[in-house]
Design brief:
The complex is a heterotrimer of chains A (568), B (235) and C (266). Chain A is an alpha/beta fold and 568 residues long. Chain A contains 16 helices and 21 strands. Among the domains of chain A are: 4-222, P-loop containing nucleotide triphosphate hydrolases (Rossmann fold), CATH 3.40.50; 281-294 and 315-470, 3-Layer(aba) Sandwich (Rossmann fold), CATH 3.40.50. The radius of gyration of chain A is 26 Å and the shape is globular. Classes of the chains: A alpha/beta (568), B mainly alpha (235), C mainly alpha (266).
């Protein structure tokens, strides 16, 4: 008996998990070799967490584990929240774990801890060891949790949806660092994750995160079907005509109270942004969390009061509009919220809320007419009319997203502002919803403003895209141009992360309370030079229809132009 | 630890001064002997403190331990709301007249323990699938997990509810002092006797003293909370 | 797309029914409600039947419960007004109104009732005592009410209502007020056990209910001073049971109605 499998750090044969009523997982068999990275995906509630807990010997009470789990060497589980001991410093936690598992003394343990953090590109790692977990940012806490696990030199590392709540730029970077280390150390790595935060996608050769991929569905393991690459949206002609929406120097800031000298302090979220949108145009807003895309979307609809600048819809300045004018504008401007379920009043039926919207924005309609309109609106988004009688609490996330879309479409808007409208959906539900949104947009010739973290999704939906960083536009171009060759290092990082290639940015986003001098990206930027700290770059054209706010990219473009000028 | 205690105590100094001022004003308005009233109230406080402090410490500590261990401890939390300290004091005074000091302590410690048990039990249940599972995933086992992680979690949660426990215990101490015969003569007894006699100056001075005691104990409790749990050190 | 009218038999139940189901699913709350109903019946029956130690304890319960209900309702109203006004009057007023409220919750406020009882003298009326008890219960209610209102005003559906162009008055009437009902009821409930505790403590010290009015606290205090365990048992048990039931229901309301579990969520 010396099959090659026998030396695998993890070999599972016929593993079933049962409760007294249900079969949760049904006869799973798989193995992970040393140094291999296996990605395990599955929708919410597919049993990924349960499987990982069973593999770690920590199955919840009331769950029976049948079958064989062979583990050679030490196994470690990193849980979904990446929780650390809240009472001890990072250094103390490394020292405790390493002395318990490997008998290391404190000095050796601390040295190894600093090395481990450095593998995750933590600057000044030794100094971080004196911090408690709550003093770390979310990204840094994840780096610490994974470094702690890897410092213990496990033969098998079980990671349950690590860093799922982080931005793609940080998550992909973290996971690639982890995968590189486990491969080098010969650790078998099992990475669980939702399909949305999928660590591997077929068809993306650039991605080398995982070696193999399995899908958990209905309690069984499946090899995933080759995923159809999303069909490129048919090229649309650039909409011509005068802009319908025009945003000039929009500024949104929130008061933070006064400091000790009595000066007002403000948190600036949107900093002098200008946008123009023509009839039927689609514009994607891309950026990490905190880039201001969501606040911008809301400020356009005046759901958040701007402190400066203008939002003009069809020639009317909305900031100064009287209530009646504003209400007429709201017919044309509608919004989809990131959590559609939370965007419905829990105490009113869907029908009552849809009717209220219609009544408020089109008060002249007769009752019979409006009842028919509600039914039509639901039909358009693929929901049965029975949904009208339901309260929001009875809806599934996918249904709530569609109901939210139906409500937004009721007043027959001309611009739909979308703030991560599919954030609560994943997998096929997400794809279906986005396809529906696209189809409706084409049919109704809607203009679309689509804010998202996922650069790939944004570039697929928007004909043009703006990249936002700390409330400012850093790059603006047609999606096709950005996909082919973004100039700003931040845009490149967003696009790389969406394709699951490690982005070239390091460190964490700066705090909006204390942004760095000069360029906001310079502390994370691989290309930054001394000049970047002096002057903030302005948004200047580098090619027709392509504007970038980056000193390096602008210099490059100038050099290109000069070379091009001399050549002939 | 020392700087933390200082910081917490300094933070409540304005409140203490306010209480003292209010007591002085009322006592001065009530009659000429207001300095004696304030002095008597201050002199009576140590006796009350000697009753409240051990009861709180014992109750919170044991309650947190019972709470994180689960099982029998849960029963204490379950019946807790039914036994406020003054009721226990009355029951003990009527049934077991011996050992009034011990019974007084028990009457104050049990409600504090019940509250700590509930809070600690909830904290443990909440941490079961997060911090505790993560520690198990890193290979921490039974007793180390209990003493190094679960108990601090429970204690931290119990200390988080210490403000209301302090207020409740000081209130109950007044009942204990008055029901247990001649066992104690602290600020609580002074307060009730002055109130019965309609002596506003003395009664308000004693009440201000009791409030000040609660504020001070609350500040010490917050300092201790910060010492146990670094997350509570901020602000 | 799945069928919304699927296998769940309760799919049509409204959010109010769901909140009720969540409340009664919490066992202490269900038990507490039963106990409270039984107590009300027993006290009413005891008033009619009277006589014996049990009848006396039930009659004392009538006084204690009436006072607690009166003072508790007053305290709840005061606290809700306090918290609501703080939220409505803007940020600076909110800080100025809520800082003292939060500070008061850490003090042995219940002692203000015996103080008032002593200073008002033996001929004190019920009304001023009820007012003091209401004042004692109010700050805690105000703090909870403010937190709940703040949490509600941050919820996304209010943005959606704004995007639908619904005027502010209608937004307040149709969307904000109905959604405050359950969380504020949970906040208000906490005034009842507080008022009952304050009254019982004061009466136990002989400084609570006016002379001639015998509540549970009065009976317990007299029995304790006399060392009469038998006379103590009835009122002490009933008081303990009532406090336990009030806390159980309050706990259930907090879990079932407040912002951490938004109404109508599955």
């Amino acid at each position: 008996m010396s099959r090659p499998d026998d030396r695998a750090p993890l070999r599972v044969e016929g593993l079933s998990l049962l409760t007294s009523r249900d079969i949760l997982l049904d006869r799973l068999s798989f193995a992970i070799e040393a140094g291999e990275v296996l990605a395990l995906s599955g929708g919410a509630g597919a049993g990924k967490t349960l499987l990982l807990r069973a593999l770690a010997g920590l199955a919840p009470k009331g769950v029976t584990v049948l079958g064989d789990i062979h583990i050679r060497g030490r196994r470690l589980l990193v849980t979904q929240d990446g929780a650390l001991d809240p009472f001890r410093t990072l250094g103390a936690q490394f020292a405790e774990l390493l002395s318990r598992q490997s008998g290391l003394d404190e000095r050796t343990a601390l040295r190894r801890a600093a090395e481990a953090l450095e593998r995750f590109q933590v600057p000044a790692a030794a100094r971080r060891l004196a911090l408690h977990p709550h003093e770390l940012g979310e990204a840094m806490r994840w780096r610490a949790a994974l470094a702690l696990a890897m410092a213990a030199e496990p033969a098998l590392l079980l990671a349950d949806a690590p860093a799922a709540a982080l931005d793609p730029t940080q998550r992909v970077r973290l996971l690639s660092d982890l995968a590189a280390w486990t491969r080098e150390a010969g650790t078998a790595l099992l990475l669980a994750g939702r399909p949305q935060a999928d660590p591997i996608r077929s068809g993306l050769a650039r991605s080398n995160l995982a070696d193999r991929r399995l899908v958990l569905a209905q309690g069984r393991l499946e090899v995933p079907p080759a995923e159809p690459t999303p069909a490129p949206s048919p090229a649309e002609p650039a909409p011509s005509g005068p802009p319908v929406l025009s945003v000039r120097d929009l500024r949104v800031a929130f008061p933070l109270g006064r400091n000790w000298r009595g000066e007002e302090r403000w948190l600036t979220v949107v900093d002098g942004l200008s946008i123009e949108l023509a009839e039927g145009e689609t514009l994607a807003l891309l950026g990490e969390t905190g880039s201001g895309k969501s606040v911008l979307a809301r400020a356009i609809l005046r759901l958040v009061p701007p402190v400066g600048g203008q939002v003009t819809w069809l020639g009317t300045d909305l900031a100064a509009a009287p209530p009646e004018t504003m209400r007429r504008a709201r017919r044309d401007l509608q919004i989809l919220f990131p959590d559609p379920l939370a965007a419905f009043d829990p105490l009113m039926t869907i029908g009552a809320q849809l009717a209220e919207t219609l009544e408020s924005l089109h008060p002249s309609r007769s009752p019979a007419n409006s009842a028919a309109r509600l039914a039509d609106a639901l039909e358009e988004v693929g929901l049965p009319a029975a949904v009208l009688d339901l309260h929001p609490g009875a809806l599934l996330p996918a249904e709530a997203a569609r109901a939210g879309l139906a409500r937004a479409l009721l007043p027959e808007p001309r611009l739909l502002v979308c703030d991560e409208p599919a954030a609560t959906l994943d997998g096929s539900e997400r794809a279906d919803f986005l396809a529906l949104l696209q189809a409706i947009r084409r049919r109704r010739r809607l203009a679309l403003l689509y804010a998202t973290q996922d650069a790939a999704e944004g570039l697929r939906i928007g004909r043009r895209a703006l990249v936002l960083l700390l409330g400012r536009i850093v790059e603006s171009a047609d999606s096709a141009i950005l996909t082919a060759g973004a100039r700003h290092p931040y845009s490149r990082a967003l696009i790389a992360a969406a394709g699951l290639a490690p982005p070239a940015l390091h460190g964490d986003p700066p705090s909006p309370l204390r942004p760095p001098t000069g360029c906001a990206l310079r502390l994370r930027c691989p290309l930054a030079h001394d000049g970047c700290a002096q002057v903030p770059p302005t948004l200047d054209p580098v090619a027709p229809g392509h504007r970038v706010a980056c000193h390096v990219a602008q210099d490059d473009a100038q050099n290109d132009a000069q070379v091009g000028g001399k050549a002939p | 630890m020392l700087s933390l205690v200082l910081r917490r105590v300094l933070a409540v100094v304005p409140a203490l001064l306010g209480l003292a001022l209010a007591a002085a004003v009322v006592a001065a308005l009530a009659g000429p002997g207001w300095t004696q009233a304030l002095g008597a109230a201050l002199a009576a406080l140590p006796a009350t403190l000697a009753l409240v402090l051990p009861a709180l410490a014992l109750g919170t500590g044991l309650g947190a331990l019972l709470g994180v261990m689960g099982g029998a401890g849960a029963v204490l939390g379950w019946v807790g709301p039914a036994m406020p300290g003054f009721l226990l004091a009355a029951v003990f005074a009527a049934t077991l007249a011996k050992a009034p000091v011990l019974l007084g302590l028990a009457a104050l410690a049990l409600p504090a323990a019940a509250q700590a048990t509930t809070l600690a039990g909830r904290a443990r249940a909440g941490a079961e699938d997060t911090v505790l599972l993560a520690a198990r995933g890193r290979g921490m086992d039974g007793s180390a997990l209990l003493w190094r992680l679960a108990l601090p979690l429970g204690l931290s949660a119990a200390m988080g509810g210490l403000r209301s426990a302090v207020a409740g215990t000081v209130t109950a101490a007044v009942a204990v002092e008055n029901l247990s015969g001649t066992g104690f003569s602290g600020a609580g007894r002074l307060f009730v006797e002055a109130a019965r006699a309609g002596d506003a100056g003395m009664a308000v001075a004693a009440l201000a003293g009791l409030c000040g005691l609660a504020v001070l104990l609350g500040a010490l409790g917050r300092a201790l909370h910060g010492w146990i749990d670094p997350r509570a050190r901020m602000a | 797309m799945h069928e919304p009218a699927g296998t769940d038999p309760h799919w049509r139940d409204g959010p109010w029914q769901k909140a009720g189901q969540r409340l009664t699913a919490h066992r202490p709350a269900a038990a507490g409600l039963t106990v409270l109903a039984a107590l009300m019946l027993a006290v009413a029956a005891g008033l009619v039947a009277g006589g014996g130690p049990v009848g006396a304890a039930l009659a004392a319960g009538h006084q204690s419960l009436s006072f607690a209900l009166l003072a508790g309702l007053g305290g709840a109203a005061l606290g809700l007004l306090w918290g609501g006004a703080a939220v409505a009057l803007g940020e600076r007023a909110e800080r100025m109104m809520m800082t003292p409220a939060a500070a008061l919750t850490g003090l042995p406020l219940a002692l203000a009732l015996p103080l008032a009882g002593g200073l008002l003298g033996p001929e004190r009326g019920l009304a001023p005592m009820a007012v003091v008890a209401a004042l004692i219960a109010a700050p805690a209610v105000a703090v909870i009410a403010r937190d709940e209102l703040r949490a509600l005003l941050r919820r996304e559906f209010l943005s959606a209502v704004q995007a639908a162009g619904i005027p502010n008055g209608r937004r307040l009437r149709r969307h904000i007020l109905p959604n405050t009902v359950l969380p504020l009821a949970a906040a208000a409930w906490t005034a009842l056990p507080r008022a009952l505790m304050a009254e019982s403590l004061a009466s136990l010290l002989g400084l609570g209910l006016p002379e001639g009015v015998t509540g549970w606290g009065t009976a317990i205090g007299a029995a304790a001073r006399a060392g009469d365990a038998v006379a103590l048992a009835g009122p002490a048990l009933l008081l303990a049971l009532t406090l336990w039931a009030l806390h159980g229901v309050g706990d259930g309301m907090r879990l079932a109605f407040t912002a951490s579990t938004p109404g109508g969520r599955r």
